[in-house]
Amino acid sequence: MLDNDKVLSVSQLTSLVKEILEGGFPEVTVEGEITNVRPASSGHLYFSLKDRSSMVQAVMFRYKSRALGFEPQDGMLVRARGGVTVYAARGQYQILVERLELAGEGDLLAKIEERKRRLAAEGLFDEDRKRPLPRFPSRVAVITSATGAAIRDIINVISRRNAGLDLVLLPAAVQGEAAPADLVRQLKAANRYKLGDVIIIGRGGGSLEDLLAFSDESVVRAVAASKIPVISAVGHEIDWALTDFAADLRAPTPSAAAELVTESRLALAREVEQFEGELETAMRSRLDRARLLLGRFEPASVEGQFMRIFTPALRRYDDAKDDLARGLQDALASRRHRLELAETGLEAASPDAILARGFAVVRKSGSKKAIRDSRELKAGMAIDIHFARGGAKAAIEETKADETAI
């Protein structure tokens, strides 16, 4: 029996608990829903088993996991057979799984599958509803977390592949109870104000619960109803959500989505380079053949014939090359001018710019509502005046309702 007065080290206590647990539960069979699957590079499989009120960690070593007839995924309901052990480094008990078998779909996965079947029956996932992405998007709206890895990956890819493409971030919660409403609100805002030629909606990887907002019915319907083409980029390659089926295009990762919206311009540049290379190769080939033929003649005569034959072709080649370069420069200049006009318009319409031009905002003291009509004022009323820099408090002496604005 343990002496209650004896002082134990953490290691000694953990060893005692380990001895009791491993001796008392050498083999158990536990049924639960898989969550937080983490395959290690070593081949070992780490995951958790949960029910409605509890969770336990589990590990299945490589030599056992290789014999599995299925790929464990979040949401699967399974039966795990093995012994209880203690991971001393963390003081955490876990199941050392010897055998793992499916027991049916987990509650969460079953709900998502039922929702998928129901929405598919309504036609929300039909291929004929999906639209092609614009070939030359000038602005991309991204709906994701403002602090997550997804937006950083998207910015890095777009900056590297097409720095001239505008990106509009619409921040939203991507997991938790508030996430579905946030995602729907930003989808509607992107469409209402035409904030992009294409929308990317997504987040980085996570468990099935982490990605649940992107399978919410309201979010799926908002994606399907979008008038702007939508790319769903949820999680990693193996992850999926119902927005993947409702969107016009599914990208395996946020980075891949960014590559998709910049691919067209890069492809066009490659086509131009390829055309130039083919044209140059063809010209060189013709020149080489001409040199062989002209080698039979006297140099002075050959030179005259060569110039008469090939000068027009060389001129057309130079003209075509110059026209192509001018066309690309004109297109870039036009888009740059449109961007400058848009920036100027936005700056001129901003509240700070309006105040800086000499205007002010008048509110009744203690109120946040701006006063727009002198008839809202009464003599003696205290008011707050807000200028471009600072403010003032004042009292009304007299009002004149019939005077027009300046």
Describe the fold and architecture.
With 406 residues, the chain is an alpha/beta fold. The protein folds into four domains: 10-105, Nucleic acid-binding proteins (OB fold (Dihydrolipoamide Acetyltransferase, E2P), Beta Barrel), CATH 2.40.50.140; 112-262, Succinyl-CoA synthetase domains (Rossmann fold); 267-349; 356-395, no CATH class. The chain contains ten helices and 13 strands. The protein has helices spanning 10-24, 62-65, 107-121, 149-161, 179-192, 217-225, 243-246, 254-294, 299-349, 351-356; strands at residues 28-39, 45-50, 55-60, 76-87, 92-105, 139-144, 166-171, 198-203, 230-234, 249-250, 361-364, 382-386, 391-395. The strands form three sheets. It has a five-stranded mixed beta barrel with strand order 1-2-3-5-4. The longest helix is centred in the last third of the chain and has 51 residues, at 299-349.
- CATH superfamily placement of the largest domain: Succinyl-CoA synthetase domains
Strands of the widest sheet, in order across it, are 1-2-3-5-4
Shape descriptor reads flat
Largest β sheet strand count, sense and barrel closure? 5 strands, mixed, barrel
Given helix and strand content, the structural type is alpha/beta
Summarize the model shown:
With 406 residues, this protein is α/β, with parallel strands linked by helices.
Name a few traits of the molecule.
single chain; 406 residues; 4 domains; flat; alpha/beta; 22% strand; 13 strands; OB fold (Dihydrolipoamide Acetyltransferase, E2P); 5-stranded parallel β-sheet; 5-stranded mixed barrel; Rossmann fold
